[in-house]
Amino acid sequence: MATLKSPVTLFTPKPFSNTNYPFLAKSPFSVKLHSSLFSHNHKLQFSSSKTPIFCFALQDVAPSPIQEEITDTLNNVKKKKLCVFNLPWSLSVTDIKDLFAQCGTVIDVEIIKSKDGKGRGYAFVTMDSGEEAKAAVDKFDAYVISGRIIRVEFAKRFKKPPPPPSRPSPPPSEARYVIYASNLTWKARSTHLRDVFTENFKSPVSARVVFESPAGRSAGYGFVSYHTMEEAEAAISALEGKELMGRPLRVKISEKKVKEAGSVESEDQDDDAQQEES
């Protein structure tokens, strides 16, 4: 009976040096397969070498249905949440909810407030669906309410916008003296009032036109402030009767207190930037 004996080496790594690894045997690991053509007897022989064998397996893990559901939920909520900027401080949660209800069901309204409880001019509005949220953006972005132009956009990562940098209050030596300017045309803006005082006297500390109409029309009067009483009186002498957009100005020292003048200025910058867009 003829027998074919075929040794096959399946895995033979490079021998390790006994100097570095004294615990390893000299002979490499090998597997010999003896096969007979006419016999079903098979024999595997393994050496007793201690050479280590390393096996690695890689497996792609698909995201679980729960993870996909959480991701989809977060994306859907993100599409329904809006951030509304430059809101009038007089608006309440109910007012905002009633306004946005024109575009669908309002789930939640959150007005962001400072530590003293005063509104900071923006809020988060959550609609019932992404379609309703988009409709609200299309309708109310650049919408004029109580004399202010509000901005509406989708909330980004649910992060609240940083508060505007606080303006340092002027030192006592820089007290503001306020001029009351009336007989303004409804088209007048704060920049127009500032420019006419600058051209006929000198640049004021602040200039503000008051708006009362939701359509963005001027209430017909405004306030201009200077550092000293002398400057305010000189400005009155120079500006009384001067024309602004076809109407003569009426100017006098405001009855507002100096402390209130500071608040007038603080509102000036916000109104100025927004009213110019109308």
Automatic annotation (TrEMBL):
InterPro entries: Euk_RNA-bind_prot, Nucleotide-bd_a/b_plait_sf, RBD_domain_sf, RRM_dom. GO terms for cellular component: chloroplast thylakoid membrane; ribonucleoprotein complex. This is 29 kDa ribonucleoprotein A, chloroplastic. One of its GO terms (biological process) is chloroplast rRNA processing. Residues 80-157, 177-256 form the RRM domain. Residues 265-278 have a biased composition (Acidic residues). It comes from Cicer arietinum. The gene is LOC101497362. Residues 255-278 are annotated as: Disordered. One of its GO terms (molecular function) is mRNA binding. CDD domains: RRM_SF. Keywords: Ribonucleoprotein, RNA-binding.
